[in-house]
Amino acid sequence: MVCTSLEHIKNWLEANLTKERFEHSLGTAECAAELAEKFGLDKDKAYFTGLIHDCAKCMSKDESLEIMKDLKLCEGEITNPKTYHAPVGACVACNEFGINDEEILSAIRWHTLGKADMSDFEKIIFLADKIETRTRPYDIISPIRQALNEENGLDKALLICYKNTIKSLVDRELKICTTTVDIYNSLL
Question: Is the pTM of this model over 0.85?
Fold first, then answer.
């Protein structure tokens, strides 16, 4: 899967992320492993993907734009600098850590906006990013975590995440990406 040791990657992340972002990455890794085990997926692969999902989060806007110029991006990724780190992170994972596993790269790529018809692995990384317990507020993550225990739990939890996102964007009078609306509608 990778040609770099987990210890090397943790050291790299610690050196290239803020303390809080590194803590979030550890929390996402733990949550991803927990969810993978719950839903019958590879927990080591999920841990690893959760750990590196935000590897490009602290890159400058200019560095991100330089990498993004060669990528095919959707409208939401181009218009919102807060999402740049997802497609850029997939590139960093490939180039810096030697990762060529398409499932890992896709999960990193789509962990912020998501996409229609995500695989269960992609859903787990997306959700772990939102509901890890080290840095995310309990009152926000609790209903999402509860939904995971229901029938079709991954999709129900995703629906709550998208509902929260849309409400937050409306409250702040920010543009809603058409991809977000399409995913929300498909989950309904």
Answer: yes
